[in-house]
Design a protein that fits this description.
Keywords: Carboxypeptidase, Hydrolase, Metal-binding, Metalloprotease, Protease. Its EC number is 3.4.17.19. Strands 1-3-2 form a three-stranded mixed sheet, with helices on both faces. It is an all-alpha fold.
């Protein structure tokens, strides 16, 4: 076989083992008994040791030197394998294994600390996670430590560029939020119980409406909603509060956005570096456009209003009031339940704090105080318990430093995609009014998803939209939408 074919064969097995590691993580969050945490940590560490050895196999360097690209696909595969090899060989096997073991344990410690509102029970473990992530960043960095970690999730992006985009967004978001909160329109939350089983049935209907392929996926419960896997095994989770059905509905739609991206990638790319979403920012664009521009639109909420009335009885409001409630703006504590105006401000808070953690400007022992002070500054309310504050998200417990800014980048990309899609795709709103996102899904599949990792993140968005991505379409969409709902 040629060097390129040898490399592909090696990569195929590595990708398959990586998928198995993902299944171990899914099982840990969804199915694993609590008492198995120590055993799972050893299993995860053992598998990571095998994966690290494969990713740093000296033969890869030889294959890359001899392999020849015949087309854009093979050229991109060689580029991505080379990038992965370069990063993996900088990280000692001991560090990779230790990180896998610790973050497997840390996840359970975080979940228990969150449930018990006991920040002190999690801080020692988080200190170890941050120590290892700093060490990893030092191995990878050619300057900025945080950028070395960010590059894992949004290749090519820098914290300076992201901070500049955030600075341009912050003022308009706060100004619009303040006008909305000063409006006479004030949607009030539900005051009734929404049984769990009925919510789950409705969540499945919503997942189907957005094109989720149930033959290659499943819906389960977890502490923090997430999407896992890809290709022919793309799973999602949700969580349920019987007093707030929107948390379940929109977390499900959000995760379906991730999963349908993975399900739509060209099957020829499976078990290659092209067989996944190209970056977390692009991935978030798929979940956020599903959740917000489509899922919170007036046409779709009109359909949802009827489905909820059928499932739970009279909701005490008409479709217009229901649409306003779905898009209610308030100073809530929880990012995943946040409205579209405050959401990006949540991300900016986390972005600044985790940059300071990695640089050493902020120590873990001072994180809770720093979070609470910044939250009160940005949102005008005081955090009263850890689950409202820095314990609410799973990301830091599993070492995902550099991940958070991709959520806001996803919103920016989603704004661009929505504008481009609606310019050439008639019938989107008419279909959404019938509970059918097919026209939007087809456009996203054809223009973005099918290509997987074929292009860089920015090239992926530019290819789909025909223009460079900017925050302008997102801000215009938010202004138009919320001025209409709140009669500004």
């Amino acid at each position: 076989m040629s060097a390129y074919q040898d490399l592909l064969a090696h990569q195929r097995e590595t990708e398959a083992l990586g998928n198995i590691a993902g299944l171990l993580s899914w099982d840990q969050e969804v199915m694993m008994p609590r008492g198995a945490a120590d055993q799972r940590a050893e299993e995860s560490a053992a598998l990571e040791s095998v994966l690290h050895a494969r990713r740093t196999d000296p033969r890869i360097e030889d294959w890359l030197a001899r392999a020849e690209a015949d087309d854009a696909v093979s050229a991109r595969i060689l580029d991505l394998v080379g990038r992965s090899y370069n990063r993996a060989t900088r990280i000692p096997a001991r560090l990779a294994t230790e990180m896998a073991r610790l973050t497997s344990l840390s996840q359970g410690i975080w979940a228990e600390a969150r449930a018990n509102e006991d920040a002190s029970a999690f801080l020692p473990t988080l200190e170890e996670v941050v120590r290892l992530k700093r060490e990893e960043a030092e191995c990878l960095s050619e300057g900025n430590l945080y950028d070395a970690l960010l590059d894992d999730y949004e290749p090519g992006a820098t914290s300076k560029e992201i901070a500049t985009v955030f600075d341009r967004m912050r003022g308009p978001l706060v100004e619009l939020r303040d006008r909305v909160l000063g409006s006479e329109v004030s949607p009030q939350p539900f005051d009734k119980v929404f049984p769990e089983n009925a919510q789950l049935r409705l969540a499945r209907k919503c997942a189907s409406a957005f094109g989720y392929d149930w033959t290659r996926g499943r819906l389960d419960m977890s502490v923090h909603p997430f999407s896992s896997g890809g290709g022919d095994d793309a799973r999602i989770t949700t969580r349920i509060s019987e007093s707030d059905p929107f948390g379940n509905i929109y977390s499900t739609i959000h995760e379906v956005g991730h999963a349908t991206y993975e399900q739509a990638i060209d099957p020829a790319y499976h078990f290659t570096p092209l067989g996944h979403g190209v970056s977390m920012g692009v991935h978030e664009s798929q979940s956020r456009i599903y959740e917000n521009q489509l899922g919170r639109s007036a046409p779709f909420t009109g359909w949802l209003h009827q489905r909820m009335t059928d499932a739970f009885g009279d909701l005490g409001m008409d479709r217009e009031a229901f649409h306003a409630l779905v898009n209610r703006v308030d100073m809530g504590f929880i990012r995943t339940e946040s409205d579209e105006l405050n959401y990006n401000l949540h991300i900016m808070l986390r972005f600044d704090l985790e940059r300071d953690l990695i640089s050493g400007k902020l120590e873990v022992a001072d994180l809770e105080e720093a979070w609470n002070a910044r939250f009160e500054q940005d949102f005008g309310v005081k955090v009263t318990k850890p689950s409202q504050g820095f314990l609410q998200d799973v990301h830091w417990s599993v070492g995902l430093f550099g991940y958070f800014p991709t959520y806001a980048l996803g919103n920016v990309y989603a704004g661009c995609l929505d504008e481009a899609m609606r310019a050439v795709t008639p019938g989107i709103d008419a279909a959404l009014a019938e509970g059918d996102a097919t026209p939007a899904k087809q456009w996203l599949d054809e223009n973005l998803r099918v290509h997987g990792g074929l292009r860089t993140p920015r090239e992926t968005i530019r290819h789909a939209c025909g223009v460079e991505p900017t925050e302008t379409p997102l801000l215009a969409y938010l202004t138009r939408k919320f001025e209409g709902i709140y009669k500004l």
